[in-house]
Amino acid sequence: MPSLPSTLTLADDDLADDLISVRDCLRWATSEFHAHRVHFGHGTDSAWDEAVALVLGALHLPWDVDPAVLDARLVRQERSRIVALVRSRIETRRPLPYLLGEAFFAGLPFEVDERVLIPRSPTAELIEQGFEAWFSEAPPARVLDLCTGSGCIGIATAIHLPTCEVDLVDISLEALEVAKANIVRHDVGRRVRAVASDLFEGVAGQHYDLIVSNPPYVDSRDLAAMPAEYRHEPDLALGAGHDGLDIVRRILREARTYLNDGGVLIVEVGNSQAHLESAFPAVPFLWLEFERGGEGVFALTAEELDAYAEHFAVDPA
């Protein structure tokens, strides 16, 4: 990490004296993020958006706050907190959601810390649409969120589809503690449960209309080249072998046993899309498109899993 300039060695009180309004804090934070080449990718994609997220988060203000607040004068405690967060973001490279303890997904807030991956999957769009491309007549009755992490996919699905039951599955007991906290936060405990399981092992005998997964899928080359921000996230939630497909191959082999006839499997593989297509050239993966950006998410129906079962049965290991 490059050495920090003198502006970051000023006492918090000195900076707090100069940053009076919300607008002042936004301008200063944006400049600092540019100057120190902070990497974005955990909910924002620019220095300005990161500054907005940090300042509003620090002030406990909503994303859609009235712009008139920009000229509001801040009290010293608020200014000091913003300065401390900006300094920490630059010096430690911790992603902003970890600093704030919260991330938004599908329009909903979720508790997050270093025990879980920060929510950023494009599947949020599918959830907001009720997975209507596959369930236009009736919503799925039972949903499995595989490799759930914070529980954001499954919990958001339960909220947007208030009649469905959802199982959240993860091998990490620490991640499930976060997921359980989010179940309580959103008061969905009557329809959502967290299950400790190595993929499907803990839900033996269960069947689902929809299985959604954002599993580990980063290949070894990309994992080694990731910016410092990503190294704060759990390795278990990121890396998956030399081509990023160790977990995805297992999902493809085993999912059909737990998927009802007419059901759908949706899996995010991100940059490992090319590896997957190379590994299974005969399989017609449906690659989904998203209005807000994002790629590397495929869908396969139960019938397609049946038709190409022999391809998935081969274990390259």
Number of strands: 9
How many structural units, i.e. domains? Answer: 2
**What is the strand arrangement across the widest sheet?**
5-4-3-6-7-9-8
What structural class is derived from the secondary structure elements? alpha/beta
Distance between the termini: 38 Å
Quick one: CATH class of the largest domain?
Alpha Beta
Overall pLDDT score: 90
CATH architecture heading of the largest domain: 3-Layer(aba) Sandwich
Low-confidence stretches: 1-10
Brief digest:
The protein has 317 residues and is α/β, with parallel strands linked by helices. The protein is 36% helix and 15% strand. It folds into two domains: 6-100, no CATH class; 106-312, Rossmann fold (3-Layer(aba) Sandwich), CATH 3.40.50.150.
Question: Which helices and strands, and how do they pair?
Answer:
Layout (H helix, E strand, L loop, with lengths): L11 H7 L3 H14 L11 H12 L17 H17 L3 H5 L1 E4 L2 E4 L11 H6 L13 E5 L5 H9 L4 E6 L2 H13 L6 E5 L11 E6 L6 H6 L20 H9 L4 E10 L4 H7 L6 E2 L9 E5 H6 L1 H4 L5
Parallel strand pairs: 3-4, 3-6, 4-5, 6-7
Antiparallel strand pairs: 1-2, 7-9, 8-9
Helix pairs in contact: 1-4, 2-3, 2-4, 3-4
Structure write-up:
- The chain has 317 residues and is of the alpha/beta class.
- It folds into two domains: 6-100, no CATH class; 106-312, 3-Layer(aba) Sandwich (Rossmann fold), CATH 3.40.50.
- It contains 13 helices and nine strands.
- It has helices at residues 12-18, 22-35, 47-58, 76-92, 96-100, 123-128, 152-160, 173-185, 220-225, 246-254, 273-279, 302-307, 309-312; strands at 102-105, 108-111, 142-146, 165-170, 192-196, 208-213, 259-268, 286-287, 297-301.
- It has a seven-stranded mixed β-sheet with strand order 5-4-3-6-7-9-8.
- Helix 2 packs across helix 3.
- The longest helix is centred in the first third of the chain and has 17 residues, at 76-92.
- It is elongated.
- The chain starts with 11 loop residues before the first helix and ends in a 5-residue tail after the last helix.
- Mean pLDDT is 90; it is low at 1-10.
